[in-house]
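Attaching the record inline, Q. Sequence:
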Amino acid sequence: MQMDVSTRQLRAFVALAQQRNFTRAAARLHLSQPAFSALIRSLEELLGVRLFDRNTRKVELTPEGESFEEVAQRLLADFDHAMTDVRDHVARRRGRVSLAVLPSLAAGWLPPVLSEFHALYPGIDLDVADVLSEDCLERVRSGSADFALAAIRADSPELRTEVFCSDRFHLVCRADHPLATAPVLRLRDLASHPFVQLARTSSVRQYLDAAVHPMQMNTLMEVEQLATVMGMVRSGLGISVVPALTLFHFEQPGLVTRPLQVAGLTRRIFLIRRRDRSLSAAAQALYELVMRKKPDEQAG
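Structure, as predicted:
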């Protein structure tokens, strides 16, 4: 049989068990003595047992009352802990937020944002997965990420997508390369030079292939990491084309970056989250900061 014991009844019981006096116990809870007595009486009726022996001189716990005292204190402690925990989460003093984000954003744009977030909410744990777009989506879909920043749109019954920013592309080459000072940059001019490509699974490669089709670049090699692209270009093995949000990799002596004005060659970044799940207070705080800190130069 279900018993709906209230915290008010439990607090009244514990107060009387400690004070052994109805007047003092009622005052401790800021209740009138009749209201306090009614709480004790209703608790005994609900439990079907007498918890106190009382007369005009004293109040004593019955054996059943002594057994119940430890239970009541534990229940109140658990309840108070749960309420404090909820308040801390709502006040953003505690919590956890998980973010899935493209490696190019995770390495350059994201760290200052997370540094500001951590300064504001030091008690919130951060979990960052720097993964490619498909994995970003899967992490949101499975619930292991609260939201994601990816380069593919994912509108579906379970996922909601909003445009986060746009990312223009730039040529990267050595300062002594002919393209570094060419008055005009055209794709067909780039295609004649050895080219260092990112792997076909990357959003950068997919955008570039779509923009140059049916033309093909003179691919010298394919690599997985932008840092590797930088090293190969710096060594003079070839040129490459990368989004503006990745240019921090190429801020190196002897390298030049130049913007490309090519129709269709703009990478769009999307913020993706679940439709059927509200963000926690911690995740909502990070979401709001991320939206305020959209990359300025690439936006639009």
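DSSP finds eleven helices and eleven strands in the chain. The radius of gyration is 32 Å.

More tomorrow.
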